[in-house]
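Okay, any thoughts on this one?
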Amino acid sequence: MKQYLTHARVVLDDQVLEDAAVLVDEGLIRAINPEQVSGATEINLAGQWLMPGMVDLHCDAIEKEAEPRSRVLFPQDFACLNIDRRNAAAGITTPYHAMSFAHAEWGVRNNDTAADLVRAVKRFKANELVDNRIHVRYEITDITAMPYILTLLDEGGVDLLSIMDHTPGQGQFKHLETYVAYMMGNHGSSREAAEQIAEEKRRARETADERVLAVMAKARELGVPTASHDDDDPLRVATMKELGATMSEFPINLDTARAAHEAGLATILGAPNVMRGGSQSGNMRAFEAIAAGVCDCLCADYAPATMLAAVASLVQRDGLALHDAARLVTLGPARAAGLTDRGEIAVGKRADLISVAHPGGQAAVSGTWVAGRQVFAANYPA
């Protein structure tokens, strides 16, 4: 259906067009401010923002849909349905569902369960509202996970691969007590069990290099983009780049983020960090990297709704231009993932679009279009 979205603040890559219009037909953006339009359904956006649909390279919210409480598993088809709806309402038209393979963490991160959930998302594609993709997170201290990940790569079930090292004593968990508290709080482990897992991770780390080489080689062979995770110093960035990584997720300090950016790795930080004004784990504030020009992308991390909230915060609180803030959740991640058909409002690109209202002063998605099909609508009071 041909649609004519009018009277919008159209957010382009490099500017915002006031009181502008976009013509959509056959799933593509056909024109911006066309001189003549016929046979199209007009949708008057009455001054709302019109942005590209957001691209989220890392969000593990699907795990909470599948396991809402520790050791409480819901049917996986039910989880797929609900995370799909959540992303449509959040304006995320291309989500990469981040799924961890960490066998010691009972539940959705158990290798068998995680592999089943990857396949469930792929099965759901025939019914999806948004373009659901898979981001497999390989915990290098889990010796048992590698065969699962290699199989999923061969099946075509992986759209993005990241390498994680959560060995206590470095990275995200600089202290054993931080890791123990995480396992007890997030996975219902006893202190004794958490300390035992930590020790097992330390031992498994000694043999991890060979596994990392094998998994990264397979991803390169298949053309799957790869990322490093929780980089904590420039040396680790250099090592991961040499292995073929093209992205650096959640660098924990500014020096590391700058090293990743200078090495040509797309740097990815958390939208919740931006919205809240700081990191939950005491690492770098995402805005420090944005202000320094070394942040390329924001991701939802664990909360899809924070993507748009982060854009609004950057504009309203931090004074960033709207098009610059929007690029962090649209064109930046699209380019990082090698998606050349989306991420910007430009003629010939996919008509992945969102309209944004401001009920009560809060930015909120009022409409979502995926390849020209409207998949979400909310009628906020004028």
Q: What stands out?
A: The mean pLDDT is 91. The radius of gyration is 21 Å. The longest strand covers residues 16-25.
